[in-house]
Amino acid sequence: MFILYLTPEPYSPSMLEAALIDKYKSTKGCKNEKNGGDTCQWSGETSEKRLYMTYVASCASVVRAARGFVEDVGAPAASKSGGLLDLARRSENNAERDCARLMVNQFELGLPIPKTKLDTGVPDDDLSVPVLRLRDWVDFLVRGNHTHILVGLKKPNWKREEAILSAFWANFERQFPTHPVFESARQGNLDLGKTFPMVFHGDEGRGRKRLPFLVLNFHSVLGRGLQVHSKKKPGWIKMAPNYHGHTLTSRFLLAALPKAAYTNEHGHVWESLMDLAADEARHMFFTGVTDLISGRGTFHMAMLHICGDWPWLADSGGFKRSYRNVQKHKTRTKPPVGICHMCAAGQIGYDFEQLNTDQPAWIATMFTQELFCEGFDPSPFVRIPHVPGQTGALWYFDVFHTMHLGVCKYLLGSCLALMSEVEPGSSIDARFDSLSCRFIRWCKESKRRPHIAKLTKELIGWQVQTTFPSGTWHKGGLSSVLMDFVEHAYEANKGSWPRMLQSAGQAVVNCNAFLRTLYAGDAWLSVGQAEKAAQHGLDFLRCYAGLARIALREQRCLWVLQPKHHAMHHLVLYLWNCSRKGKTLNPLCMATQADEDFIGRPSRLSRRVTAQPQQICNRVLGRYLQSAYAQWVKAGYIIRPKHGTNKVR
User: Fold this and answer.
1) First to last CA, the chain
2) Diameter of the chain measured on Cα atoms
3) Which of 72, 107, 157, 165 is most buried, taking the most CB atoms under 10 A from its CB?
4) Vertex 166, ends 160 and 172: CA angle to 5°?
5) Vertex 233, ends 250 and 400: CA angle to 5°?
6) Smallest Cα–Cα separation from 114: which of 632, 621, 627, 647?
7) How far apart are the C-alpha atoms of 25 and 125, rounded to whole Å?
8) Measured between alpha carbons, how far is 331 from 348 in angstroms, rounded to an integer?
9) Which residues contact residue 199 at a Cβ distance below 8 angstroms, ignoring those fewer than 6 apart?
10) CA angle in degrees (0–180, nearest 5) for 442-491-512
11) From the centroid of its chain, how far is CA 339?
């Protein structure tokens, strides 16, 4: 055994390990499967036996490690490693600032997106919030010949990019012919072959001390698809949802800030952020960015939807009606205002629980009621060009939160409760243990990740049978695995199951078929695919409503009805109605699985910087641009210059 490096300093060994693995991981004989630092995790034992890992390394520790390395090998040898001597000369007192100047300003190891101060309209505001404007992102994409990323191509191909965009808008026009983008194109104000369909997403991640951390981003409707190893060869005009690939290369950050920076005395910052997002969307629609290098003309963007979970939709829109207005008690003192920003569902005479039809009473009230509360200014997003008379459709119900973290959890809660009743055992815990063993065994046989150690009554919030069971997890992947498990159990045991459990199994089959049809499609679903998905969705809703009626008749607390069932109803009827006109834009294009991954990245960065809101905003954006740069290089979008040159291609 050879000892390469020995030090009590916790970060240097793992940095060296990571560097060696990075250099030799492609060399024949290298057996390292991880990126390094993983074997240097602190064991939690005594100081003599401690092992360390690197992901929490501070800039000051990096400077100390560089100094130690220079002392060990000498300045002449260290000078052969570009930047090592410069790094060793940085000050430890303000290492974050000095390292950023070295890495970004001198060595250009960050995306060149300028930071702009958010205009809050408050003179002498003590909080300066930096943002990355959409127009600056597009200027970078155009100058760097990266516009192919916005249509899901790996390499630039100008003719193909224009063909894809033209085909997208041709399909979109069949569904929404009155959208202002087509009138602007007819007037010559924009070229549909150079107009990108975009989505605006926002949500709160978990920052320092588990406090909310707001992350806002824009991204294209089109991307590289859903399936990583699809054998289907894409055609010339490829249109797929924006999932595959690293989210730091497909999402474009607008702002990232802790809750303290946009609440209480800084509440005006929230309004300014919404104004900024709307203004950037309008600028890219009406003005665009001109290619002054290659002479390709002016590029525009049309923001089609605002997506995210329901709390984000309600907050960003400032709606008069949302899920927060659902009636929570048997008696009421005043008429309910409704739960949906697009219709009157939840009001008297328009029950949102009416799931067993494709013509619910509320369908006639679509876009007929005022969106916003009286006495309050409307959301700035109403200024974004959209289909006339359908302002509420800008805010789109997300498939991921509606289904995987909503409807599926309600469905699985009651399914698992009923399945436990047919398991052997004299107590509820014993029956759940038996069910859990079957689940874990099925996961091993089908090579699925279980995500949990065991199934318990606590997992579905069913400690007592006088409460409605519902999944308590927050991981969409667990919903998917459990849905497949219940379907498998239904197919194997439906002959011996009680009637209600058989109906529940059929509901799971219909729900899975609905989701699988969406996930098997591209950005545009064919008429047959849209009809099939809608039919499966309607079959599920009818089945679930029937189960709720049976439970009510038997006076059992099962099959809870929640506002997210209404959100699913909207998605299903959207597919049903659009399939009558032609190809239908896949709702997965506005789903947020990839955005959830993106949100976690700035949120994790915020836990490793100072607690001051001003510094958090600046340093998170700086570190984000450096992290994104590394992924752009890894993806081949940016080519680093060879040693001795100064330009980046």
Assistant:
1) 43
2) 85
3) 165
4) 135
5) 45
6) 621
7) 50
8) 13
9) 218, 219, 220, 221, 303, 304, 305, 306, 307, 589, 590
10) 85
11) 24
> Residue 497 and residue 426: Cα distance in Å, rounded?
19
DSSP character string of 589-614: GG--HHHHHHHHHHHHHHTTS-S-HH
State the pLDDT at residue 9: 58
The pLDDT tens digits for 341-388 are 999 999 999 999 999 999 999 999 999 999 998 777 899 999 999 999
Contact 205, 319 (CB under 8 A): no
d(CA 573, CA 583): 15
> Please, what sign has the CA dihedral across residues 388, 391, 394, 396?
negative
Residue type, 322: S
116 phi and psi angles, rounded to 5 deg? -120, 135
CA of residue 402 relative to chain centroid, distance: 13
Residue 458: half-sphere exposure toward Cβ, Cα within 13 Å: 3
Of 447, 448, 452, the C-alpha closest to 436 is 452
Residue 544 in tokens: 């679930």
Express each pLDDT in 210-245 by its tens digit. Answer: 899 999 999 999 999 987 555 667 788 999 999 999
Torsions phi, psi for 585 (to 5 deg): -65, 125
Angle at Cα 646 formed by Cα 645 and Cα 649, nearest 5°?
A: 95
Instruction: Parse the chain into domains and list their residue ranges.
Output: 12-106, 116-315+592-634, 319-377, 399-590
The CA distance from 339 to 344, in Å, is 7
Other beta carbons within 10 angstroms of residue 61's beta carbon come to 18
Quick one: how far is CA 467 from the chain centroid?
A: 32
The encoded tokens of residue 227 equal: 């399936």
Residue spans of the chain under pLDDT 70: 1-15, 18, 22-57, 124, 228-232, 642-649
CA distance 322 to 564: 11
Check: CB of residue 569 under 8 Å from CB of residue 403. Answer: no
Q: What tokens were used for 64? A: 């100390």
Write down the residue that tokens 């699925």 correspond to. 448
Q: Which amino acid is at 313?
A: L
| Paired tokens of 33 | 């499967």
Alpha-carbon span 631 to 106, nearest angstrom: 19
Strands 116-117 and 130-131: antiparallel
Q: At what angle do helices 593-606 and 613-634 cross, to 10 degrees?
A: 130
CB-CB contact of 116 with 124 (8 Å)? no
What element of type H or E holds 251? strand 251-258
**3-class DSSP state of 88:** helix
The alpha helices in 297-384, defined as continuous H runs, are 310-317
Where in 272-401 does DSSP place strands (E)? Answer: 289-291, 297-308, 395-397
Asked if 440 and 454 touch (Cβ cutoff 8 Å), the reply is yes
Amino acid at 452: I
Global pTM value: 0.87
